[in-house]
Amino acid sequence: MLIEWLCRKRKVRTRVEIEMYAAEPGPMGVAGPDVSKAVREMVESKGIRYFPQHQVTSVDGAARKLKFANGVEAAFDLLAFVPPHRAPRVVREAGLVGESGYVATDRATLATNFPRVFAFGDVVSIPLALGKPLPKAGVFAHAQAEVVANNIACEILGKGRSRRFDGEGECFIETGDGKAGFGKGNFYAEPLPAVRIHNPSRTFHAAKVLFEKYWLTHWF
Question: Residue 220: is it exposed, middle or buried by C-beta count within 10 angstroms (0-12/13-18/19+)?
Fold first, then answer.
């Protein structure tokens, strides 16, 4: 959607076709069908063609061609590609990953099957009730880190109150035109995540910018 906005800003949108191919059945499916439907509507309202369930098998840069597991091929002039996600090599070679390819943890405490070893953030896979894993997002890594740090401190000091990660999270959805949508809710809710999405607005975009500036100032 930001690419689409940039094309309009540069007054070349009428000469550009934008297509989005995704392996999943719908965008943000992990947040539930209603949220997925709303996000897809945002994408398609921009004139972007959305192709779900297209798993990339190869990219031919010289020929500018994509091949998918379902036999479909697509040509491109410019490709914006998200590479495969996987746990870091040092974690895989240490024998910490399970069948999922990521570290298995207790969903509340982030404790692993290994004594006194915790894992959180992108290195873990936490299954949800709807059959998908918890998204790998900074908002979850941040909350998980606070839980783990608190509980380690309690164990070392022998005092304090232990904490549990509850699956709460939120994210902004940049749509261009100085606007952003906003989704928030509990991803641990059953049978489906209890996530609500708010329509794009300038207010949410401003909130996203302030959020980024706060963290950049706080850490750097």
Answer: exposed
